[in-house]
Known about the structure:
By secondary structure, the protein is of the alpha+beta class. Helix content is 38%, strand content 21%. It has 18 helices and 23 strands. The strands form seven sheets. Strands 17-18-16-15-21-22-23 form a seven-stranded mixed sheet. Helix 15 links the parallel strand 21 and strand 22. Helix 1 crosses helix 7 (151-160), helix 11 (233-240) crosses helix 16 and helix 13 crosses helix 14 (355-379).
Amino acid sequence: xxxxxxxxxxxxxxxxxxxDSSVLGESRSPLxxxxxxxxxxxxxxxxxxxxxxxxxxxxxxxxxxxxxxIGLTGQMHGAVLLDRESKSLRPAxxxxxxxxxxxxxxxxxxVPDHQAITANLIMPGxxxxxxxxxxxxxxxxxxxxxxxxxxxxxLRYLLTGTFATxxxxxxxxxxxxxxxxxxxxxxxxxxxxxxxxxxxxxEGPDLTGTLLPNVANALGLSKKALVIAGGSDNxxxxxxxxxxxxxxxxxxxxxSGVLFTAKDTxxxxxxxxxxxxxxxxxxKWHQMSVHLSSASCFSFLExxxxxxIDALLEEATTPTDHSTIFLPYLSGERTPHNDPYAxxxxxxxxxxxxxxxxxxxVMEGTAFACKNGQDALLRxxxxxxxxxxxxxxxxxxSWLNVIASVLQKPLYIHKQAHFGAAYGAAKLARxxxxxxxLEEAFPQGSSYEALRPNQKHQTYYQxxxxxxxxxxxxxxxxxxxxxIEGWTKET
Length: 491
């Protein structure tokens, strides 16, 4: 049997897979995010470990003993700093932490050809500028830093005692040469680091270690269980629905929103805010548009109104009944704006605006952000046929209907949509154990529901999208002025 472990932002998820790819068990353990200052987003790595152990122990003892291979996946870009005793030195700075704006510019200045090396812009959420921020603002901690790990790879160290990562997760650090699939000494040097401080690089299916005996005993797992390199949450989500070849795509609706397309080459268009990364299997790459706030916008509504999202969605008005526009930039934005200071905005309110109007505008605003991402990917040369749907957001059919109508593309939901990354990690572990062709190991998933665009609302959404697209440029300078007035003092 094969175990997929997904270290997410809001929870750690587990999925057990049989040799014939049947799902035998699932579990999860919740996590919380700390935001001590504006633009900060952190978690304690020890919390990841405790949640991982809890989620594993929720699985059947008999099934746990039968696990032969473990696949790791999880949130990208996090900076886990370890000392010489491999102890965590500070809370991990997460993928949506936006404090390292100045450090991005410093790295870009030091390495003028950084885009040719990394195939991407250097963004505040990436690992490299975060570590440079620590070097500048917490020099004592930086001096003690013996190793830098990504979140899932911290779990690997605790499971196996080895320091390793995979190509897809390493792609999000700004330290990897994307086309060569190797660490870039030039990019590391710009942050005061060397390859000695980096984990060893592996392709996703490669073996990286065996469970430590004491860990295996405590968790009821076999001492012979092997841990593979795994992949980033987005790359393994792609594997879960067979998104490996040109033309295949998926939309993930979780805390963040990701539109993902597979690529056969490392072709890039960084100016559009598109991410070009290595895939979790050899010889493959992928491109993504990334939106930092997606389903989290509905969590925001729940908090504001102290009402469940299911109840709020029932109040949503029809697409013709309101003029409110929502900018979903609650944590800044990546694609296409690359602006950590962008903020969420409700625009067009009047004394007739209802709570249902606000809910409808959130559904529309997050859909328009996805459309911005789709347009950027198409300009980058991406090919998109069927778009598979993944993530917790698939539970909201009303939201999905809006997205399908805005994208003007049919969307397909899968049975394992809510466990996409964990499912993909388990399938990658199975592939590592059994081998075979990529087509056979990662077939395109079979959907159980298709959502198609509502042509009746096409004109409405096109007009609303034009207003949405005009709003951010009109406010961009105001976000910057607010930053100058005091936000930088907090960072």
